[in-house]
Structure formats: C-alpha cells, structure tokens
Amino acid sequence: MKKRSKLLAVLMSLLLVGAMLVGCGDGEQAADDPKPKTQFISIATGGQAGTYFPLGGAMAEIFNANVPGVNATAETTNASVANISLLEEGKAELAFIQNDISYYAYEGAEMFADRGAVTNIAGVATLYPEVIQVITLADSGINSIEDLKGKKVAVGAPASGTEANARQILAAYGMTFDDIQPDFLSFGEAVGNLKDGHVDAAFLTAGLPTAAVQDLGATHDIKIISLSDAAIESLTSEYAFYAPFTIEGGTYTKVEEDVTTVAVKAMLVAKAELSKDLVYDLTKALFDNLDKFGAAHQRGKDLTLDTALEAMSLPLHPGAEKFYKEQGIL
C-alpha cells in the first residue's frame, strides 16, 4: 500500500512538472525573452586606404552598441558603382556612395544606361564633400591635366565612382581614356604604383585628408594638379553634383599652395526593403553618436543635422524621413 502511495506521488509530481513546462511553452517564452532576432547589417564601403572604410567601421560600432539585435560589419569594396550592385542584389544593407553615382543609378543614366534604373535604393544622409584629387610626384613634369596625355594614369578601380570622375574630367579637356594609358587601380594600389614608378599620376576621389595621399606624402614629394577655371565651369554646368572646391595649402605635407578642383558628396544609402523602424533606429543611433563618428576620420566631423540632406540625390528612406521630421529638419 505504501509502495502504491509513493508511486502515485511520483506520478503526480511528474504530471505537475509537465503541466508547468506546457504552461511555459513557446508563447510565454517568446513574450518574456528580451533578446530580439539578430539583424545582420553589411555596410559596403570602399578600399582600406580611402575614407569610406574607417567611417564605415565606426558606423558599425555605433550600430552594434546602440541598436539592440543589430550585428553590423563594414566591408571593403570597389566603392560607389560596385556598392550600387551590392545593394541591388541584397548583398549589403547600407552603402557609402557618391551622390552623382546614386543619381545615375536611380535614373538609369550614364554607366547605368544599359543595365537600367536601380530603384530599390533610398537615401539616409549626405555625409561630407568628396574631393577629386589628381596626384603626381613633384618631379614628374606633370603640371596640368593636358600633361597627362600619353602618361600612365591610375583612374580608379573598375566601375568605381573615381573612374567616372576621371572620365568626366578628361572630357572637360576634350580628352578620353584613349589619350592616356589608363590603369584601373584602387586607392591603395594607385599609391603603391606611384611609389614604384609604375604610373605617372592618379585620380582619387575621397574626403580630405585622404589616407592614401598622406601615406604617399610621407615618403615622396607630391603635387596635386589644379583644374582650370574653364574645366570647372564645364563640369559644374553639365553635372549638377559637381561643385568648385579648394584644397587649402597645408592639407598635405609639402603641398603649400591652394589647389582648385571639384567635389561631389558622399552619401549613406540604404536598401529600400529595410524596415522603417530599423532604418529609423540606425539613423537615430548615428546622429546620437556623432562624436564617435567624427573620431574615426576628420571628414566624419562634417556630418551634422543641418547638412544631412544637402545634395540628397535619392528619395529618403521612410525610416530616415521619420527621424528628420522628428528633428524638425523636414
């Protein structure tokens, strides 16, 4: 009798435990579980020697620390044009892209004319001026764009924003890639080839000061070629995204004179399919931590609420739009 009572007690205990487990099933666990589903964010940047990469790294750290459930990483890429494809194909969620390249993609113009418009992209913020710099060594004998004729010239990585800028600047002088010996190199590769004498000059489009140019100037005397007033007028009248820009003397070691050139704007662009709430949270986190963004690179200090929509060349993502409306910017 005692054995039967003990057995009954054990069975009742097991039933009670089972009932408790059923009561704490998937529904209640999901309600009580504070850990959100992980959202992986790939941020397409550019070459490691440019400006996009360090700023993208800082952005990833800001998102990871301030947006619950986000796992963001900065990826090296061939920059603007390549980044459009990464967004379009769903291989990146955010990207650094020049405002002119974003416009061409959305409108299906220029280098996107054959492949068609890319419409699943949306603007988040414009970040800072990206300056077109034509770099050579001080003793190269190159003093103008016309002097590039017949020379070996690094014109940017294939399908990059720098390549497009180089082509357009040459066109302002009545020149094409046929007039030079073009070498399609990234920032780092261009600097290495300048150091080794494998190219005579290089086009670079990036924020100032550009790490690749600083690196070159640390071991070689360099020269930055000014654009003529006529060429600047031609570029700014034909392309709405170019603006005159002066590189002040002293920006780089031993480059003491001002250099006249043009600039576009770096943008942060999102895949349009990202949720409104997610992009809102990412945008808010970025602007709540501008000090950390600015600490990664001098150009990060250019981003402010007052300038975030300057030269915006895409429709805003609804999440970013919500944030700006809350801030009274829209």
Topology overview:
Elements: H1 2-23, H2 26-32, E1 39-44, H3 52-66, E2 70-75, H4 80-88, E3 94-98, H5 99-107, E4 121-137, E5 152-154, H6 161-172, E6 181-183, H7 187-196, E7 201-206, H8 211-219, E8 222-224, H9 229-238, E9 243-247, E10 259-271, H10 276-288, H11 290-296, H12 318-326
Parallel strand pairs: 1-2, 1-3, 5-6, 5-7
Antiparallel strand pairs: 3-10, 4-7, 4-8, 4-10, 9-10
Helix pairs in contact: 3-11, 7-8, 10-12
What is the terminal separation in angstroms?
Answer: 81 Å
pLDDT averaged over residues: 89
CATH class of the largest domain: Alpha Beta
Task: Give the strand tally.
Answer: 10
Unreliably modeled segments: 1-12, 14-31
- CATH architecture designation of the largest domain: 3-Layer(aba) Sandwich
Report the oligomer.
single chain
Q: Please identify which CATH superfamily of the largest domain we are dealing with.
A: Periplasmic binding protein-like II
**What Rg, in angstroms, do the CA atoms define?**
26 Å
How many separate domains make up the residues? 2
What is the count of DSSP helices, taking H or I runs of 4+ residues?
12
- Beta percentage is 15-25%
Q: What is the helix fraction of residues, given as a range?
A: 40-55%
